[in-house]
Amino acid sequence: MSDLIMHFVTPPIPYFIDSGKHTFLPGERHVSRNSINVFDIIIVTRGKLYIRENDYEWIIHNDEAIILRPDANHYGTTPCEEETEITWIHFQTFGAWDEMQNMNECYENQFSLFEKHKQKAYLNHCEVSSIFIPKKLKLSSKSMNDLLTFYSFDNDTRSLRNWRKQTAFQTFMQNITHDSAISINSSAIHLAEKIELFIRQNYTSKITNSMLKDEFNYHPNYLAKCMLKVYGVTPIDYLMQYRIEQAKKLLIQTDWSIARIADELGFSTPAYFSSVFTNKQGISPATFRKKN
Asked: What share of residues in the chain are helix, strand, coil (percent, to 5)?
């Protein structure tokens, strides 16, 4: 059952709680634990571990890891056949998360998870994004070396140890996320990410489907299909969403006129900007500014 994907929404990013090592002797197995309220990454550094979580069962080999849920029951299914060493890392997140059967299911559920996240994490104007990590994964040599950093801080004072382990955890998560992206992202997903980045960098310019076709050398229908799969919207819809989010920030953080904001964000006229904003937000830009 290695196809399961852990889907985390950020910011805020998952944060470190605790870590440690354990050695299972031949004949021993992982203890049974139920709803421990933290995520548990188990990394096998030597040997082989048999473990089950709810309805799924895995064999974790050397240099492999599994991410266990905070709300499930997990336990060892079969005694270790040889001396087996593990590193465990507990972490948690304030944001929304879910476990999906595959990447397609992740993308189909992404919009609803984003909306849940904004309420749960108290985010109103922050642009959220996804982190996808296979539930069971093979760790690169770089990620395995990252684990040594955790051990190197054990002799630090508590105040330094907590800060440094938090930093080391972020590096570890960043590296396994990068490694996972290479294995699970298709060419269509990479293309959608390039379109999204292009729009963010050029949203004040006049972006059209013809312009995107020339930039990426693909038919607009294919570009739209890729964006719909990953972000749930077409490129032009994403452009409008991004412009509106920037408009909301400018309305709150500056005293610029509506006309200037419209011009800064690439809208052809203030009237068109007001029409799009009202259609998306349900209130006019002026009312939004006064309300906030």
From this structure: 45, 25, 30
Residues 50 and 117 reside in one and the same domain: yes
User: Are 287 and 273 contacting, i.e. CB atoms less than 8 angstroms apart?
Assistant: no
Q: Are residues 120 and 31 in the same domain?
A: yes
Q: Are 99 and 4 in contact (CB under 8 A)?
A: yes
Domain total of the chain: 2
Phi first, then psi, for residue 44 (nearest 5°) are -90, 120
Q: List the one residue out of 117, 14, 120 whose CA is nearest residue 70.
A: 14
Domain enclosing residue 193, as ranges: 187-291
One-letter amino acid at 40 equals D
- Average pLDDT across each block of 10 residues of the chain; the chain has 292 residues. List them in order: 82 91 95 95 96 95 96 95 96 92 85 83 70 92 87 87 91 88 71 92 93 94 88 90 92 93 92 92 91 84
